[in-house]
Design brief:
By secondary structure, this protein is of the alpha/beta class. The protein has 10 helices and 10 strands. Helix 1 links the parallel strand 1 and strand 2. The longest helix is centred in the last third of the chain and has 18 residues. The N and C termini lie close together (about 5 Å). The structure holds 2-phosphoglycolic acid.
Length: about 240
């Protein structure tokens, strides 16, 4: 089972104190990573225990050069980053990140030996239109671009479930993640399928009971020691 925490821009240096409460025994047989803002990567290297890998929340589309403000794959690689979130809906919506941008970011991940976690998800309006499966397939296919036969995890995160306290139902998660499995095989993606969107210690048991879910992407609940309790439940349930 895979657990990825995403601190987004909701952390500060004091947040690293919360990591001290995470215990090794909670993470036994769980592959665990927390993605931090790039400025905190050196702090994460000093403070994260060895059972928590460090991930990045984004990667530049560019390799290196005159791109003020960008954090490149080479920099992430130098700092021992293992995973990179690409195409998180917050970036797609707020920063207008397109599927083509995401495909370029996957290229940089491959170039610098970083494992991409490709995020996809439909808005509430899209779900209500009933065309959400077509939408998600197109989003994934275009985000993957010309890459094939690559190692990449896919996170299904319905936009309406992120940060809302209202996770998708098991039926909704199962329908999409089963399709994601087929789509990954079609596109030649080798990796795990995650669910994200208001995951917490109360709903984790139900979510990981689904055979099409290999792990979770956790936002709010990853900021505190609830992250450890979620990981522990994943071990018990898996
Ligand atoms: P949430 O965020 O757990 O706070 O809903 C999930 C995410 O955006 O990855």
């Amino acid at each position: 089972m895979f657990i990825c925490g995403n601190w987004k821009a909701a952390c500060k240096t004091a947040t690293f104190d919360n990591v001290k409460a995470l215990r090794r025994d909670q993470f036994i047989s769980t592959d665990a990573v927390i993605t931090v803002p790039s400025i905190y990567i050196p702090l994460a290297r000093m403070n994260f225990p060895d059972f928590i890998k460090i991930g990045a929340q984004d990667i530049s589309r560019y390799t290196s050069g005159p791109y003020t403000g960008e954090v490149t794959g080479e920099m992430l690689n130098e700092y021992g980053i293992s995973y990179v979130l690409v195409g998180h809906s917050e970036r797609r919506i707020m920063l207008n990140e397109s599927n083509t941008d995401v495909a370029e970011k996957i290229s940089r991940c491959i170039e610098f030996q970083l494992a991409p976690i490709i995020c996809i998800g439909e808005t509430q309006a899209c779900r209500e239109s009933h065309g959400y499966l077509d939408y998600l397939w197109k989003q994934l296919k275009e985000s993957v671009g010309n890459h094939t036969d690559i190692k990449a995890d896919v996170a299904y995160e319905p936009v309406w479930a992120i940060g809302s306290g209202q996770n998708a139902s098991n039926c909704q998660i199962a329908e999409v993640t089963r399709n994601v499995k087929t789509w990954m095989a079609k596109l030649g993606l080798h990796g795990r399928i995650l669910y994200g969107g208001s995951v917490n210690e109360s709903n984790i048991d139900d979510i990981i009971a689904l055979d099409s879910v290999d792990g979770v992407l956790v936002g709010n609940a990853a900021i505190t020691d609830e992250f450890g309790r979620i990981a522990k439940r994943m071990r018990c349930g898996s």
